[in-house]
Amino acid sequence: MIRWSWRREAKPAEPRRIANLRNLELEAAKEILKEVFHARPSDIEDMIQSRLEEKRWNEERRTGEEGLWPQEFCLGD
User: Fold this and answer.
1) Cα(48)–Cα(62) distance, rounded to whole angstroms?
2) pTM
3) How far apart are CA 53 and CA 21, in angstroms?
């Protein structure tokens, strides 16, 4: 059987590479916000923090940790 040297087995990406890629994407997004929308770095950080809090709140609601309606509802006796 001939094995082609240019053909490699697919490997999952290393966690470090994924984290590094996400950091690069975040920095690029910050630069775009700064240049296109003339946003200040402090405003950008506030936007990111707000988005993270919103995402965390939505995840809590979805997993039932906080703020969900009871499974059964009764108007009274």
Assistant:
1) 21
2) 0.51
3) 22
Residue corresponding to tokens 């039932």: 64
Closest CA to 48 of 34, 60, 36, 35: 34
Pair of tokens at residue 68: 């969900």
Question: What tens digit of pLDDT does each residue of 23-76 get?
Answer: 999 999 999 999 999 999 999 999 999 998 998 888 877 766 555 566 676 776
Spatial separation of the C-alpha atoms in residues 61 and 64, rounded to whole Å: 5
Query: Shortest CA distance to 26 belongs to which of 34, 14, 13, 53?
Result: 34
User: Any idea where the domains of the chain sit in the sequence?
Assistant: 15-63
The CA distance from 10 to 72, in Å, is: 49
- In angstroms, what CA-CA distances link 58 with 44, 51, 64? 21, 11, 10
Give the SS3 label for residue 18: helix
